[in-house]
Amino acid sequence: MTRALPFGPVTEDDLDRVTGKLFLTDRTGLSAFWVLLTLAAVIASTGVVADSTATVIGAMIVAPLMTPILGTALALVLADRRAMLASVALVVGGAVLVVGIGYLSGLLSPVPEVAATNSQVASRVAPKLVDLVSALATGAVGAFALVRSDVSDTLPGVAIAISLVPPLAVVGLTLESGAPDQAGGALLLFLTNVTAIIATGTVVLLAYRVRATAVSTGREVGRLRPRTVVVVVALLVAVAVPLGVGSYQTFRGQRILTAAQPVVAQWAQARSWQVVDVTWSQGVLQVVAAGPPPAADPASLRGALDGAGLTAVPARLSEVLGGTTELPVSPSP
């Protein structure tokens, strides 16, 4: 059937297809959900441990966690309390399962899986406002592809664009590695994506007049209360605040790197050393250097940074063939 309008009401067949796909009520659908989610969690956890982007993308495609999240949005639109509780329970239970598998995978890893040593972890522990914007757009595409069967072939791309299982795997891995602050960042990324999917999914389903179709076909539809919309908006605001803080920290880190890199390079050159890397991670300036004996003098680097106006910036100096030295903020005179 061809719709004259881009947001024409869904047909009864569309509604049956969407509800059948999103509301997992039969044993077959539930068993498939848990089996696929378990396998996706194993793939994601091992992919993060191996620092393999391709493996992690494979986990995104396999993971079925977006189904109950969009099911929550559909239940909100239809004001179906029972379906909403069932969908939320699947999301929460699935999240706990993935975190648990991530934690167990961390026990098998010989080294701590943290942002400083693993790029897959680093990319998921410091979410920013841009992640919320991306998740909102991706959630809208996912809901649109479900309602419109003629564009359903975009769903694998949506699965890759939205990150659900990998952040949860990172939560478990970083908890096992003793980095609860990084686990909190990864959990915030997951909650951001979930909230965005529910919010934009609700908007798209309302735009396609799913409620009107349900009523016209004799389905039982509850009353959509204004407070439901208020709660969804409040959740978006709740995740946007820490994301805004994260964005500011990223901006501040870039400014510090711009100021620190020439200072560190000059300090290393004066001692015939070579700067391997200068990064900003978790609120600390990380300097990695290599050179001939004698060992680098941390106090001289601290003094150089202070002289460049970076007195309040904590730093960490790591020698390629030596140890790591903390350079705390210099005390105020």
Automatic annotation (TrEMBL):
Q: Which InterPro entries match?
A: DUF389
State if Transmembrane helix is listed as a keyword: yes
Transmembrane residues, as ranges?
Answer: 30-50, 56-78, 85-105, 125-147, 154-175, 187-208, 229-248
Alphabetical keyword list: Membrane, Transmembrane, Transmembrane helix
Q: Does the keyword Chaperone apply?
A: no
For this entry, the protein name equals Putative hydrophobic protein (TIGR00271 family)
In its UniProt entry, the species of origin is given as Actinomycetospora succinea
